Structures are given as structure tokens and as C-alpha cells.
Amino acid sequence: ARKHATVSMGFVTGMLSGMLRRNKNPAPLLAGLDIHLADAASRVPVDRYATLYNLVIGELQDEGFGLFATTMRPGSF
Prior knowledge:
mainly alpha
């Protein structure tokens, strides 16, 4: 069932890498989501990943997660 869908931690750390490149601490966004970056083999429920996805975009104002040379304004996708 869809409610049990998960995302690899690699996608989480990849999404957060743009924040780190911009010297922004992702810890406040992770708070309360029960996502533990130290456990690289863990998987994240898709609903928590989606919440983090939206928080990162909101924080960076960039749908490219800060990973590209130019920003992609929210709503681009």
C-alpha cells in the first residue's frame, strides 16, 4: 500500500546537500520528522520525505534544492 512507501536515505541527504552548500543547517527542518541522517541504510516514509521536500524548497526558495548554478523559483515544477 502507498502508506508504506519509503525513500532511500540517499535521496534525503542529496536533497539536503544544497542547504549545506549554502551554509544552512538542515536540523531545524528535520526536527519532528523522525529522520536520522546518521543511519545511512534507513528509509524514510514518503509522507515525511514530502514534508521535508516542501520545507527545503520553502527555506531555500529554490525547487532545485540549491544544487544548480541558478535557482528555480517555487512553482517551476
